[in-house]
Design brief:
Bound molecules: flavin mononucleotide
Distance between the termini: 20 Å
Structural class: alpha+beta
Number of domains: 1
Largest sheet: 9 strands, antiparallel
Mean pLDDT: 94
Shape: elongated
CATH superfamily: Electron Transport, Fmn-binding Protein, Chain A
CATH architecture: Roll
Low-confidence stretches: none
Radius of gyration: 19 Å
Strand content: 25-35%
Length: 199
């Protein structure tokens, strides 16, 4: 993405295009953003993999285990931020969004069906993420991790959840030798409205 061409008109499209492209680029730094959640008392932040983008719906998608803290936090408070940084392009994108959790429904099923078997095993831990263990490990039955196309991972499906974050604002910051630039892009309900900000 050539961010030097950015203006308030084309910036929303450029941001969505950069995020959408990152989904298919395994080593893109934009593919592993940080997702922050908050309940009434505490903020939590963690790395996730950006699994999908729906520009029309303004959705960012990631997958998780239904038993994680982030799911409980989103269910208590839908307000999240998703933070991206591209160190080569020197661009930070902070998305403010309302998140929804989909599990055991048509949306979860659609993403699950597209998930390679090896990745489905990630949702097969016997205890929920964050549960204590007597020794280091992932608590997944080793037989389920064998690269066998016939492995039955359907029992892991109830643990699989899709988080969809519906973006209502982007805070975009571009570090440049010629002077840093920052913009706020807000969805008004009908269109994007942009504003330059002091970086
Ligand atoms: C590179 C990387 C990618 C990750 N991707 C995900 C992911 O897509 N979904 C997820 O739930 N956890 C992912 N994790 C693990 C989370 O960062 C976190 O440790 C875990 O989900 C527990 O988070 P929670 O207890 O705050 O819910 C990833 C971690 C790393 C380092």
């Amino acid at each position: 993405m050539d961010w030097h061409e950015s203006n308030l008109e084309n910036l929303p499209g450029q941001i969505w295009e950069a995020l959408s492209d990152a989904v298919g680029i395994p080593h893109s730094p934009l593919r592993t953003p940080a997702l922050s959640t908050t309940n009434r008392l505490e903020t939590s932040i963690r790395t996730v993999v950006l699994r999908g983008v729906d520009i029309k719906k303004r959705h960012l998608y990631c997958f998780t285990d239904l038993r994680t803290s982030k799911v409980r936090e989103i269910r208590a408070n839908e307000q999240v931020q998703v933070l991206f940084y591209h160190p080569v392009q020197k661009v930070q994108i902070r998305a403010t969004a309302a998140a929804m959790v989909y599990a055991d429904d048509a949306i979860a099923r659609e993403f699950w069906e597209k998930l390679p078997l090896a990745q489905r095993a990630n949702y097969a831990a016997r205890s929920g993420p964050g549960s204590p263990l007597n020794e280091p490990g992932d608590d997944i039955d080793p037989a389920l991790k064998e690269t066998s196309a016939t492995a039955d991972l359907e029992p892991a499906y109830p643990n699989f959840a899709v988080i969809a974050a519906e973006v209502d604002q982007f805070d975009w910051l571009h570090l440049r030798d010629a002077g840093n630039v920052r913009a706020n892009i807000r969805w008004t309900g009908k269109r994007y409205s942009g504003l330059w900000l002091v970086p």
